[in-house]
Amino acid sequence: MGSWLVKLLSLLPYVVSGIEQIHGDAKSGVEKKQLAMEALGLASGVATAADPSQKAAIAAATDLVSNAIDGVKNVYNAAVVKKAPSVPAVSQAVTSAPKPDPLSSSSF
Questions:
Q1: Residues 61 and 8: beta-carbon distance below 8 Å
Q2: pTM of this prediction?
Q3: Using the 8-state DSSP alphabet, how is residue 101 labeled?
Q4: Could you state, in order of their start, the residue ranges of all structural domains in the chain?
């Protein structure tokens, strides 16, 4: 059981990233989390149907993977935080300063 659980956990970053790449800003974070949980529920149901004697282990693994999805989602969100570009105060002062009149008679 341990080896397949490790394999499953190693796929989580790819699942979360894939859902993010497919849906991007078209779906909310809650909707994307729901998609991941539905996939997990489907996998859990298939595993339980395939080996009903492992129902308790599959339920425990499902809980573990659910928590891991939350963790991977948090890391992903922290790594790709979309920040508005900041403009330094000096640049703002320069861009808001009045432009010289090119037709004026002053010279260097």
A1: yes
A2: 0.56
A3: P
A4: 2-96
